Amino acid sequence: MKCFPYSMRIRSRNKFRANLRGFTLVELLVVIAIIGILVGLLLPAVQAAREAARRMQCSNNMKQMGLALHNYASAYKHFPARKGGTMGAGMSNKGRLSGYIAMLPYIEQTAMYNNIQAGGAGQPPGGPQAWAGWTYWNRSPGMVRCPSDPSPIPNSRDCSYGFSIGDSIFRARDDGHQIRGLFGNAVWRRFASITDGTSNTIAMSELLCSRGNSSGGAGGATSLAKRIRHNTVYVKNVSGLRASPAVCRTVSDGQFLMAGRTYYGRRGINWTDGQPAYVAISTVAAPNSPACAEGGTNGDQQHMMLPPASKHTGGVNAVFADGSVHFISNSIDTGNLSAGTNGRLTGRSPYGVWGALGTIAGGDISRVD
């Protein structure tokens, strides 16, 4: 057995210990800084990928909406009304049931539809008032909520999509056949009604739910906690809206409502109620522009301009009457927003390509390819 001098064994142990020394503080800080930089570079990419997935799911939901509309029209020879239902002095929907209820069997919700038609729990067949609390009203199907919309609350009545009333503002709440979009009050339109062509006419688009039944003021310019994003609510009692929709631009600084403006937070909060505030969009101002109303109170305001809105970068998804889904840019041509609509519009839309896409029979054919 070969022996080594004691001094050589000591040096060998010291050399081994030197090789086992830990990181210095400087080295540790450098590693942490590198990891932080990598996370900072990767996080936006991860967020973008997630939003792309959410946008794709939202687009798929809209395709299902388009397919449901076509299947409904195939079965009944017409589209559902935006607002209809049972009428009468007793227990009824009060004529305010939204088109979503009629579409339930065609979005894989046949059981819910059958339960609604059966009534029960003290409620009549077809359900109670569209705004009332009821087991089958109180939870909207997941398909009517967009995953990019941060507002809808799970197990709530919220929805993220609206039926198109086209470029109509005057009597948007109550007009039927005079509504220039595909969906009006107590009017069930046929394919033959869409003389501008189904591929040139929007059926539905997105909206951002206001998250709860709220109203109030927009707060001061320096009060960020009280400032309200203009595309999640609508400003009430905007004088002159019908004379010039451009007046709605004055209520916002481009992102938030101006200080002193009052609003209603009714957008998308009740999927069963066919009032425009809850389940409609219009094609006057561009997507993600401010929404305004004139006349009436709460969610029952009469004359309304309700641009679609979303959290997708640059625009919104829309399903057309032919069932196709297209992305509509915030910068789409809106023509002359100073054109008055004190009465009902006729003929071509004054609101450019966007207005033309909303009308079913305006005689102005515009396409989004």
Entry keywords:
5-stranded mixed sheet; 369 residues; alpha+beta; 6 helices
How many DSSP E strands?
A: 12
End-to-end distance: 88 Å
Low-confidence stretches: 6-10
Major β-sheet profile: 5 strands, mixed
Overall 3D geometry? Answer: globular
Please list the strands of the largest sheet in the order they lie side by side: 8-3-4-11-12
Beta-strand residue fraction: 5-15%
Descriptive notes:
The chain has 369 residues and is of the alpha+beta class. The protein has a domain at 44-65 and 144-358. Strands 8-3-4-11-12 form a five-stranded mixed β-sheet. It has helices at 6-19, 25-76, 99-103, 110-118, 276-279, 352-358, and strands at 83-84, 97-98, 161-164, 202-206, 214-217, 234-235, 262-265, 280-281, 291-294, 303-305, 315-320, 325-329.
